[in-house]
Amino acid sequence: MEFNVKKLASDAGVFFSRAMQFTEEKLGQAEKTELDAHFENLLARADCTKNWTEKILRQTEVLLQPNPSARVEEFLYEKLDRKVPSRVTNGELLAQYMTEAANDFGPGTPYGKTLIKVGETQRRLGAAEREFIHSASINFLTPLRNFLEGDWRTISKERRILQNRRLDLDACKARLKKAKAAEAKAALWSDEVEKAEHELRLTQTEFDRQAEVTRLLLEGISSTHVNHLRCLHEFVESQTNYYAQCYQFMLDLQKQLGSSKGEIFSGTFVGNADSTSPAAAPSPPAVAAATLPAVPTIPVVPTIGGVPNTVAEGVLNPNEVKPPASGTRKARVLYDYEAADSTELALLADEMITVYSLPGMDPDWLIGERGNQKGKVPVTYLELLS
């Protein structure tokens, strides 16, 4: 019990001494031991690293999970060392709704078929998003969080110890100075001077040792930067793969929808094939197709899917469908396109083809020629040149 009382008294005395020294320094009434310029630069660099790491970490969390309530929930699970429950992504939820709607409207109808196709793409996008979030969390967020919760806490602890050692050192310097001043007036204070010098040597040794420990930790920030740089490269690679997957998924969907446009918007609506009402008038041609003059000399023939029988029945025969004398244009292909059947022409991005329109054609389609090959091509895949 007596030992504990003495220890508490000693700790209280040390705390009071540090508080007095700190207050006098702030008031300009006491000298302060300054750290060397290199050490100060290391401290500033460490503080800068900590501040920016926190900001990047928080904003990346917002990027991966925009919902603040979900972020709080994930944070609590991590603090409790429990696995975060799997959460359905927005894309997967949209895919579920589209599939259910298609079943209600009829999966065999044009709208139902399209809903199923788009829903499947949304499901793939949602799965890709989930994979990206998981990869980014492990390869990027976790290292940043480990630095803040591990290395930085250790650095902060050693810096506080160094600050206390410096206060003790400066307090000893002040006591020695007072003892020497008193010694000049009376020889009775010589013991106090010797005691103060001994305390100063001890505190100086402790300060130097702690300064070296803190310096080594601060210099380790360079290794932290190297590690974070590697993690940043992995984050960019994950993000690149994610967006590449999304682009490919949407490109595939665009091809699927483009190849089925002729069937969906044909002269006779598929869902009303048995209706006795007359077929709806064809919609006005699109702007891109309207700039191509039709050929009046070619007789109008029955159409299938908005295209003359000569185009829809099979492989195009140059003797049956001839390009107009003055109604052709050059077009540059914007995207790769895979022909859905023998009536269509497969396209490669950036190639040049000749295009023209025929009377009665769906405005979303043109006839394309490349050498001796002919076939329908979707207008949305082309850039018409003047």
- Percent of residues in beta strands? 5-15%
- Give the N-to-C terminal Cα separation: 100 Å
Number of helices: 9
Output the helix-strand order: HHHHHHHHEEHEEEEE
- The percentage helix is 55-70%
Tell me the strand order in the biggest sheet.
6-5-4-3-7
Mean pLDDT level: 80
Please tell me how large the radius of gyration is: 39 Å
Shape call = elongated
What would you call the quaternary organization? Answer: single chain
Question: Largest sheet, described in full?
Answer: 5 strands, antiparallel
List keywords for this structure.
386 residues; 7 strands; 8% strand; elongated
Compose a concise summary of this entry.
The protein has 386 residues and is α+β, with helices and mostly antiparallel strands. The chain has helices at 2-26, 37-64, 68-79, 90-105, 110-183, 190-219, 221-264, 287-290, 309-312, and strands at 303-304, 307-308, 329-333, 352-356, 365-370, 373-378, 382-384.
How would you describe what is shown here?
It is built from 9 helices and 7 strands. The protein is of the alpha+beta class and 386 residues long. It has a 5-stranded antiparallel β-sheet with strand order 6-5-4-3-7. Strand 5 and strand 6 form a beta hairpin. Helix 4 (90-105) runs antiparallel to helix 5, helix 5 (110-183) packs antiparallel against helix 6 and helix 5 (110-183) runs antiparallel to helix 7. The radius of gyration is 39 Å and the shape is elongated.
